[in-house]
Amino acid sequence: MDDIQDQISANELASFFHELADVAGRIARTHFRSSVDFERKQDLTPVTIADRAIEVELRRLIGARFPDHGILGEEMGSTPGDRYTWYLDPIDGTKSFISGMPLFGTLVALADERKGAVVAGMIDMPALSERWYGTSRGATFNGKPAKVSRTARLEDAQIYTSSPDFFTPQDWARYDILSKKAMFRRFGGDCYQYGLLASGHCDLVVETSLKSFDFMALVPVIEGAGGIIRDWDGQPLTPDSDGRVIAAANDSLLQQALAVLKQ
């Protein structure tokens, strides 16, 4: 099978990502701050009718455009493909969504499994009308170039994580020490915090318990904006990574943070 670049131009691929985001956003906004019901999955995380409706529609659009591609979604599992796989998180931050907080997003990534690389990724925040799109050529925020900050010292860094609830006691102890060495720490935001990092508004994001559909889209956005994203051992993220993720504005900041986490 030819490279995706031989099948579709960079502009066409970007346009398709934006089409997916537009469709997902319309569905999400229809249900946001409504009386939408939710239920708990086996892992006790909530899921709504909006999560499922978005994934159904994204799968339909991807299947029509790229019928030989695989799809891995949070709500409907895996559909195998020949070489390429789409990773879908229809609503990242479902707890925010069901509680009326606008810090939820849709994550979409396209990975070349043969090369072990993420071709493109998107963070879309439908309630905020904010969108990041990243490839190896760079990252954009609402169509304009996105660039990470120049913060190079841990003591000057702004550090984010979604919630202490996602950490084991041992991992929280490590994060607690790290975050207290930074200039200040903030909580909440799910995928939004990675967009903030890509646009230079924070400097470090450190999390655990993420699944591949949570982090695959983040890789080209962060790296396209000039940052770096790894696991807690400093290794590149893959679909088999253990869910402990650290994103930084630059390698110097990453190495300082990793040194603390490894203590």
Automatic annotation (TrEMBL):
Keywords: Hydrolase, Magnesium, Metal-binding. Gene3D superfamilies: 3.40.190.80, Fructose-1,6-Bisphosphatase, subunit A, domain 1. Mg(2+) binds at E74, D89, I91, D92, D214. One of its GO terms (biological process) is L-histidine biosynthetic process. InterPro entries: Inositol_monoP_metal-BS, Inositol_monoP_superfamily, Inositol_monophosphatase-like. One of its GO terms (molecular function) is metal ion binding. Signal peptide: none annotated. It comes from the Bacteria. Its cofactor is Mg(2+). Belongs to the inositol monophosphatase superfamily. This is L-histidinol-phosphate phosphatase.
